[in-house]
Design brief:
The protein contains 18 helices and two strands. The chain has helices spanning 7-11, 42-48, 50-55, 59-68, 73-78, 84-94, 100-103, 111-141, 147-169, 186-208, 223-231, 233-253, 257-290, 295-316, 320-343, 354-363, 367-387, 400-403, and strands at residues 14-15, 21-22. It has a two-stranded antiparallel ribbon with strand order 1-2. Strand 1 (14-15) and strand 2 form a beta hairpin. Helix 11 packs across helix 13 (257-290), helix 12 (233-253) packs antiparallel against helix 13 and helix 13 (257-290) runs antiparallel to helix 17 (367-387). The longest helix has 34 residues, at 257-290. It is elongated, with a radius of gyration of 33 Å.
């Protein structure tokens, strides 16, 4: 039966040569262009961090890299994720891994070799203290020698101590992940603050008394402070290792930057207090052996030790600029105190030296470095409570596995 408009012809099935009937295949719709933009917001991030995601060994490494590039939980929300860790898990799942053979680290050393390297590191960390004691003994044996000889012996001992310290921080937990990064003046500030701790009190006394009468004045070193600070490198390395291990465990157990920060802040405070306790014990022991230098000298040396420890901890975990700023602040305050005493000798400017003179009279010359180093150490601690809570601060550098067994 046909319809006037020929609809029956269109509705009738097609008849093939065998008598079999089949319906006409449905027409294919035109292919729609792929949706762009918010349909896959993570794709652009994948392309931007392709190398990081391809070479990561797990999602935590990607999270650390993203956090180092400024990606926060708020940024992750724009990519439809609750936090950086969730975003890193998707990136790790979607980006194909690079060839493991291309970047695989060298096979790990045997356990006996690892223990041997740890023993070498322990010796290197104790070496500055041993060299300092040897230098003190050499100065004591040269007591009857001419002043030039004593000066040469003291200078040689100081240079050897500096070299031993440099050797001790170039390996182990105190080794910086990126040795070439950071200001080049940081070493200068370390030398200034350490030198002031040894000779600053004597120099300030001389300046307040109208001296020093150079070149005949014989500097008096704070021997106990020097020995204790030299031996403090060993507990500093132990505390830094404990902080690094606990920090990586906290990173692995955290599911967000807020949770990681809540784990790291008390850890940093506990590490600082642990090192402070070990340093005070060293200072009291050295003070009992080499002579009583006073309570304020112990306080000043403890403040300097904590300052140096926090500065090195920040530098190790990727914040060398902040470490150098803290050290430079302490050095500037100490230099300012000495400068004010000298400037006060000029006509009409004696009042400028009154604050330093009043502080030294009330609490002793060691109060100046105590105040300077305490203020700088508190500043670094406050900065560390914010800076060391990021994921990037607790993940080793790409060269870390290869350097793990370096002595």
């Amino acid at each position: 039966m046909t319809t006037p408009d020929g609809g029956a012809a269109r509705a009738a099935p097609a008849i093939e040569e065998g008598g079999a009937a089949r319906t006409a295949p449905p027409r294919k719709e035109a292919a729609r262009p792929a949706r762009r933009g918010p349909a896959d917001p993570v794709r652009s991030l994948m392309h931007h961090h392709q190398e990081l995601c391809a070479r990561a060994v797990d999602a935590l490494e990607i999270a650390a890299g993203l956090e180092a590039h400024g990606v926060t939980d708020r940024t992750a929300a724009r990519f439809r994720h609750r936090d950086v860790f969730s975003l890193a898990e998707e990136l790790y799942a979607r980006v194909p891994r690079a060839d493991p053979a291309a970047g695989a680290p060298e096979p790990s050393a045997a356990p006996a070799a690892v223990r041997g390297h740890r023993s070498v590191r322990a010796v290197l960390q104790l070496l500055p203290g041993a060299v300092c004691v040897a230098a003190v003994a050499a100065l004591a044996s040269a007591g009857a020698a001419p002043p030039d000889v004593r000066t040469a012996v003291g200078a040689a001992g100081g240079v050897l101590v500096v070299l031993a310290v440099r050797l001790g921080v170039r390996s182990g937990p105190l080794r910086r992940r990126h040795p070439g990064a950071g200001p080049r003046t940081a070493g200068l500030w370390v030398c200034w603050t350490a030198g002031y701790a040894v000779y600053g009190d004597w120099l300030l006394r001389q300046l307040l008394a109208g001296g020093p009468d150079l070149p005949y004045a014989a500097p008096r070193a704070a021997v106990a402070t020097a020995v204790a600070l030299a031996f403090a490198l060993a507990p500093a390395a132990g505390c830094a290792h404990w902080f690094a291990v606990r920090g990586r465990r906290g990173l692995a157990a955290s599911r967000g930057l807020g949770e990681l920060a809540a784990r790291v802040r008390p850890l940093l405070l506990a590490t600082t207090l642990l090192f402070l306790g070990a340093l005070v014990a060293l200072l009291l022991g050295a003070d009992a052996v080499f002579g009583d230098e006073g309570t304020m000298a112990v306080v000043a040396a403890a403040a300097l030790g904590v300052l140096l420890f926090l500065a090195r901890l920040l530098a190790v975990h990727g914040f060398p600029e902040a470490a150098a700023t803290g050290l430079a602040s302490a050095a500037a305050l100490e230099a300012l105190a000495l400068s004010l005493v000298l400037i006060s000798r000029l006509p009409g400017l004696p009042p400028l030296g009154l604050p330093v003179e009043a502080l030294a009279t009330a609490a002793g010359p060691a109060a100046v470095p105590a105040v300077a180093c305490t203020a700088a150490a508190l500043g670094l601690l406050v900065h560390g409570l914010r800076a060391l809570t990021g994921a990037c601060a607790h993940w080793p550098a790409p060269s870390g596995p290869a350097e793990a067994h370096r002595p």
